[in-house]
């Protein structure tokens, strides 16, 4: 029997039948049969990948395609690991690429290997840019650069805050007739990352005038994000209306940009409304949306809802989101909720020691001070001294003083004042007045008087309140002669004298 010669058109017709779609095991058997048959596509040799491409619209997870991509990732990963050992030395990097990169990139002449390598080096932008720069020099004897390679290079230049280079790469690709939406998206992202929203919007208008390409939902998502960063809520919402008018289906990143913009602008109701729309619609919130909502609820002080979201993503947050944990701690510190200290201590245990932040340390000092937790407050103060952090505001110092006063811990206050002076913390008159009042209450008048010398040492003049503290102390403990001296000093400074000041 003569063996039948299959053509691509017949193969396409066959795979569209109900039988082959409903039996996933059949297509692979059929592929093996067809690839072994001569005469496919008018006698041209057809590879397995050529046949597999016909299934791309039928199965989202194609076994053969997955294997090819996996092999590519593994090969590129080996090259990446070798590049990471070169300590960003340009000469060593170039040598590795010459020895191991050229052959690999020639196998994948469509640029996919370069794009994959740049993707894997995303966390090392300087190294990635060295690789990209080397790739630009290989045009004479290697395959021409592709649109996606240029798009990656533009995005990396943006991350390195080199807008001039990003624009240069965009123009270079344009001169080679490589204009594509992805190039515009990459440059718009670079502008957005560097806070150049107006240039991003101008580039968007240029894209709309292009005849060869047009804005995609990714383009609109970038524009929404750019407006959101600048708290231009009206522009952000107008962009969303344009997406709807054009019947372009939104993506999860569309909502991500909206929610992030509302959080930046402190539009809490709009933030929640967008989140509810997602939950009710076909595009459900993902982990990134939940992290945004967690941040939003923390900033807005809605602790119950913050805790609900936290319960949903606790494992991820505890392992990967230290900044978000700090945000939650701040939310508890700003709230007067019962049990907030326990919540804060629980979250603090999740933060590694090398993740110390001075501003968070100060917030904790104030929290413990308001709760009159003297030991915890002093531990946080000690930690601040050890890290050479210092307080620059009177409000924080007053908060600390008040806690010592309520706990009647004058000796601890005295030690704190001495260390604060040496550490360069904000020095205010209240520090010394509080010591004087507390010494007076314990009839430690000589120590109270030494405080005046301390004030003189830091060039802090005596105020009317200083004299009043002395008068009350001497009057309380019957020190008439000293009382008269203070009255005289008050007259000398022109403060006036209370009528009953000398009446013991």
From TrEMBL:
Residues in coiled coil: none
Domain of life, source organism: Eukaryota
A family per Pfam: PPR_3
MF term (GO), any: mRNA binding
Repeat is among the record's keywords: yes
Entry keywords, A to Z: Repeat
UniProt-listed NCBIfam families: PPR (TIGR00756)
Family, per entry: Belongs to the PPR family. P subfamily.
Full protein name: Pentacotripeptide-repeat region of PRORP domain-containing protein
Native source species: Erythranthe guttata (Yellow monkey flower)
